[in-house]
Amino acid sequence: DAGVIQSPRHEVTEMGQEVTLRCKPISGHNSLFWYRQTMMRGLELLIYFNNNVPIDDSGMPEDRFSAKMPNASFSTLKIQPSEPRDSAVYFCASSSLGTKKLFFGSGTQLSVL
Amino acid sequence: DQQVKQNSPSLSVQEGRISILNCDYTNSMFDYFLWYKKYPAEGPTFLISISSIKDKNEDGRFTVFLNKSAKHLSLHIVPSQPGDSAVYFCAASASGTYKYIFGTGTRLKVLA
Q1: Residues B85, B108: contact at Cβ < 8 Å?
Q2: Going residue by residue through chain A (113 aa), what tens digit of pLDDT does each one get?
Q3: Are residues A104 and B44, on separate chains, in Cβ contact within 8 Å?
């Protein structure tokens, strides 16, 4: 299995631009999570989906952030407009009901200038 | 409000000695706990877990201890090896949810 696949690995953009991060979960996993890693807050949960349905988006910092999961094999996290304080590493993770553990992708390093 | 806290940002240990990483939580509904290890430029990888019905779980050189009354868990690595140098995250979840709350991480450096 290829594991959780995230793209791009690195994204550099200018303030005000739209940013879209992509994730392909492990086949057969029915839960998907978006996390953001910062020095101050560690791994911060932004949103998670169960069977493609958003269950808890209370961690999404502002309306500038949105996430979708149109099908079981694809999810996006969009920031519009982006700001310098959004600079962080964004991780996607997936899991299945029986495993009780998360499998993470390699992350997207986002830099907003 | 941080529901899962790792108060030591970093720890240095000599090779062959014991590494002890600590984690505290505030939510009494948490009943399942995990430790993840993260190398630079990689995603976190699962290391070991423990359910609240136990107070200890062991896997090779790694042991996790849970003290429910103190809302505290710790990860012991014995003996520590240079390859164990990484950032370690503690995570917690409550029954009936799939929400995993992570701490801020502890950077472990094992000196050869």
Answers
A1: yes
A2: 689 999 999 999 999 999 999 999 999 999 999 999 988 888 999 999 999 999 999 999 889 999 999 999 999 999 999 999 999 999 999 998 777 889 999 999 999 99
A3: yes
**B89·A105 Cβ contact <8 A:** no
| Tokens coding A36 | 């953001």
Q: Locate the chain A residue with the closest alpha carbon to B95.
A: A100
- Residue A35 contacts B where some CB pair is shorter than 8 Å: yes
- A40: closest CA among B5, B14, B68, B99? B5
B98 with A31: Cβ contact below 8 A: yes
What DSSP string describes B32-63? EEEEEEE-TTS--EEEEEEETT-SEEEETTEE
- Per the CB < 8 Å rule, is B98 touching A106? no
Please name the residue of chain B whose CA is at the shortest distance from the CA of residue A41. Answer: B104
Fill in the amino acid letter for B63.
Answer: T
Decide if B6 touches A, using CB distance below 8 A: yes
* CA atoms within a 13 Å half-sphere pointing along the CA-CB vector of A54: 17
For residue A78, the Cα-to-chain-centroid distance in whole angstroms is 9
Question: Which position has the token pair 């958003």?
Answer: A54
A95 touches A101 (CB < 8 A): yes
Q: Which residues pair with B14 in a beta bridge?
A: B111
